[in-house]
Amino acid sequence: MPSLEIDGAHLVYDDTGAPFDGAPTLLLVHGFPLSRAMWGAQLEGLADAARVVAPDLRGYGESTLGAWPGGKNPTLDRYGEDLARLAEHLGAAGPVVLCGFSMGGYIAMAMLRRFPESFHALALVDTRANADDETARATRLKMADKIHEWGAGRVAELMRPKLFAPGAPDAAVEATTAVIAATSPLAIAASQLAMASRPDSTGLLRSIDKPTLVVCGEQDELSPPDVMRGMAEAIPDARYVEIPDAGHMAPVENPSAVNAALREFAAGLADPAA
Ligand code: MLT
Predict the structure, then answer these.
(1) pTM to 2 decimal places
(2) What proportion of the chain, given as a percentage, has pLDDT over 70?
(3) What whole-number distance in Å separates Cα of residue 207 and Cα of residue 133?
(4) How far apart are CA 32 and CA 55, in angstroms?
């Protein structure tokens, strides 16, 4: 498995596809507290259309946490910098599509601020632009504080009912729950503190000057369709696609519909080197 050392962390990633010179690169960024395993159907199903790269963010899956991101005050910029360095390391010839799912979408907002030159197009999947309200922030800080006592298994049980539409395939639910339960408590704490401190990005949407695809599971309760449709309306060059038979975990609940949207979007991008 390819990997990269960045500032004390060992980052592992999948790298498949690249069917032709100048093919687009899909850089798939997982959510919280997940791993690159959530992109299995995209790594397999889109390899004939694009180079498909899916890293484990620091602390997740097979990647190590390295130094505590941001010291005592971690921010999403740490993950953004890792992804910018990975994108540079990939040396992609064609356009790079930064595809962020949920927390991965929050990281994409951080990258729009800090590392906009590291990608050419954006896909925002089951995510939102606003910052947390006080209740959400307090919930995150409590989890960051208690996670060593609770263990990741409790986080898996807390999150499971919110992630899937009723009738989601059992295998997808079980696999996702197992990934969450196996996640390092330190990674969970770091991400919760980083997400709690993220700024509001609603105003940023109007300034996005990259082609953008906005994808939302029609039964997503965490980043619902009306919220994501509003994001697409605010972004100057955006297309909105709603995924049937899916909740928050649309890429694993209805991979064929998500893959069709990503395939069409990637095919429509011009090669920046051409
Ligand atoms: C995710 O799926 O990444 C999380 O639901 C994001 C969050 O906790 O806001």
Answers:
(1) 0.97
(2) 97
(3) 23
(4) 13
